[in-house]
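Key result, reporting period 2: structure in, sequence out.
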C-alpha cells in the first residue's frame, strides 16, 4: 500500500504538487492520470525519495522509502528505462541490482525470461530498441519480487504484442494482491487495464474513484436511434416527454432513457428500428472533460486559438 498525506512540492515560486492525499491499495491496478505538467512524475519521484517533498509524507507499507533496508524487495519501479548502464549487458545490469539488494542471482534469469529477453541477455543494453529497453526496465522492477510496483509510461516503445502482454501482467500481479500503480498517456490502454483512477491537474487531486464511476460522472450517456420512420419516432418520443438531439445521417440521440424503454416504445407503435444502442463516452473523453480547466500547456490551431477540449466532448 502507498499512502500520500498532504504531499507538496515547490520549485521556487511554482507549486508542482499541491497537498496530494490519496491511497494506492493492493489487489487492483490503479491508473495515475493528468495532463502534461500536472505533477505526475514529480509525485512518483517523491514516492521513491528521489525528490524531497516541501511538506507532507509518503509511506510504503507504513514506512518511508529511505528506511527500507532492501527496497527492491518492497517496491519495484520503472520511471525511466534509459537509466540502465548502456555498457553492461542486460544480465549484468540486473545482476548489479540483485547483488545490491541481496536478491538471489537465479532471479535475474527468471525475470529476463518473464519479460522475453532471455535471447539477448548477454547483449549490451545500449543497443536495445526502445521496446527492449522498456522490457529490461520492467524486469528490474520485478527483480525483488516486490508487493508494490510503480510504472511511469510502461508501454512506451512496445509493439501490440508487448502492450497486450504487459496489460495481462499487471492484471495478474494485482490478482495476487500486489499494489500496482501505473501512469500513462495512452487512454485506450488505461481503459482496458486500470480498475481505479487517481487523476490530478496542476498538482491537485481531481478524482480518486473507480474507472466505471469516473466515466459515468464525467461523460454523457445517451441512446442512439436510427429509423426510417423518423417523424413517427419524434412524435412518440415527444409524447413521452423525451427530446432527442438530431445528429448526422438521420441519427437521433436521446438522453434520460434506456435502450429497453425506447425499444418497448418502438415495438408498441410498430416502428422499425435500424439501430438502437446505448452510448457512453470513452475514458479519453471523460478525462478531457474533467481536466479541461487544469491543462497547463495548450496547443493552438491554425487560427492561433487554443482548442476548447471541454466543448469538443459530446455533452460537455
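The corresponding designed sequence is given below.
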Amino acid at each position: 500500500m502507498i499512502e500520500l498525506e498532504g504531499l507538496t512540492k515547490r520549485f521556487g515560486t511554482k507549486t508542482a504538487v499541491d497537498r496530494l492525499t490519496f491511497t494506492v491499495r493492493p489487489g487492483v491496478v490503479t491508473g495515475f492520470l493528468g495532463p502534461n505538467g500536472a505533477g505526475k512524475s514529480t509525485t512518483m519521484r517523491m514516492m521513491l525519495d528521489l525528490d524531497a517533498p516541501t511538506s507532507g509524507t509518503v509511506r510504503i507499507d507504513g514506512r518511508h522509502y529511505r528506511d527500507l533496508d532492501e527496497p527492491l524487495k518492497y517496491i519495484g519501479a520503472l520511471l525511466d528505462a534509459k537509466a540502465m548502464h548502456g555498457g553492461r549487458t542486460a544480465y549484468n545490469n540486473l545482476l548489479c541490482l540483485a547483488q545490491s539488494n541481496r536478491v538471489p542471482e537465479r532471479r535475474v534469469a527468471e525475470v529476463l525470461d518473464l519479460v522475453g529477453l532471455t535471447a539477448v541477455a548477454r547483449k549490451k543494453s545500449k543497443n536495445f530498441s526502445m521496446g527492449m529497453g522498456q522490457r529490461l526496465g520492467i524486469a528490474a522492477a520485478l527483480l525483488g519480487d516486490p508487493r508494490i510496483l510503480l510504472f511511469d509510461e510502461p508501454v512506451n516503445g512496445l509493439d501490440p504484442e508487448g502492450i497486450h502482454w504487459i496489460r495481462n501482467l499487471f492484471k495478474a500481479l494485482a490478482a495476487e494482491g500486489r499494489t500496482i500503480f501505473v501512469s500513462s498517456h495512452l487512454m485506450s490502454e488505461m481503459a482496458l487495464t486500470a480498475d481505479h483512477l487517481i487523476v490530478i491537474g496542476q498538482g491537485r487531486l481531481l478524482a480518486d474513484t473507480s474507472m466505471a464511476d469516473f466515466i459515468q460522472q464525467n461523460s454523457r450517456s445517451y441512446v442512439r436511434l436510427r429509423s426510417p420512420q423518423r417523424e413517427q419516432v419524434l412524435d412518440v418520443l415527444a409524447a413521452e416527454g423525451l427530446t432527442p438531439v438530431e445528429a448526422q445521417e438521420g441519427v437521433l440521440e436521446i438522453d434520460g432513457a434506456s435502450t429497453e424503454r425506447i425499444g418497448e416504445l418502438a415495438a408498441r407503435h410498430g416502428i422499425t428500428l435500424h439501430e438502437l444502442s446505448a452510448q457512453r463516452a470513452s475514458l479519453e473523453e471523460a478525462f478531457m472533460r474533467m481536466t479541461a480547466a487544469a491543462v497547463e500547456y495548450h496547443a493552438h490551431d491554425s487560427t492561433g486559438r487554443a482548442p476548447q477540449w471541454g466543448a469538443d466532448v459530446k455533452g460537455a
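The chain is about 35% helix and 25% strand. The longest strand covers residues 14-24. This case is discussed further under Risks and Mitigation.
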